Amino acid sequence: MSAAATEEINIFEKAKNLLPPDYVPSDDEEYMNDRQLAYFQMLLIEWKRSIRTAAGQTLQSLADGPIREADLNDRASSETDWGIELRTRDRQRKLVAKIDAALRRIEEGEYGYCEVTGDPIGLRRLIARPVATMTVEAQEAHERREKISRDD
User: Fold this and answer.
1) pLDDT tens profile 97-119
2) Which of 113, 116, 105 has its CA nearest to residue 142?
3) Fewer CB within 10 A of the terminal residue: the chain, N end or C end?
4) Residue 129 to residues 5, 17, 44, 55, 140, Cα–Cα distance (Å)
5) 34-63 vs 72-108: helix axis angle to the nearest 10?
6) pLDDT tens-digit map of 24-66
């Protein structure tokens, strides 16, 4: 096991010890207190772990050998399925990088705050998208600017 994986397990266990089993962040608490940060750390580490497990299963399937379908239509269908699977894994690889960045922001005390405005992102948004780096308003403005520059 790598040192990074061991450290993540230690962080996960430490966060788990801070929280009751049924804990969910609430607006009634101070924003980004220790319990909320521990909750999001656990959520992010578990998400990353599940992505890596799925990627390992894909690699194992690829290692088992190429698909040799007798029928050309079946072979084409299988190859399409593999293409979709590999694209999904590539998206998840990029997501792991975002999860790592979110975990770094937790360590640096920046998690939960918009990188553009500095305002709180909000618990509901973070629960829905734990890797969010902007408030909904800042994200919408960013996407509008992106669309305008793409249309030019």
Assistant:
1) 999 999 999 999 999 999 999 99
2) 116
3) C
4) 23, 24, 10, 21, 15
5) 150
6) 899 999 999 999 999 999 999 999 988 888 877 766 666 665 5
Cβ–Cβ under 8 Å, residues 11 and 45? yes
SS (H, E, C) 79-101: HHHHHHHHHHHHHHHHHHHHHHH
Cα separation, 49 vs 40, in Å, equals: 14
Per-residue DSSP letters for the chain? --HHHHHHHHHHHHHHHHS-TT----TTSPTT-HHHHHHHHHHHHHHHHHHHHHHHHHHHHHHT-----SSHHHHHHHHHHHHHHHHHHHHHHHHHHHHHHHHHHHHHT-TTB-TTT--B--HHHHHH-TT--S-HHHHHHHHHHHHHHHH-
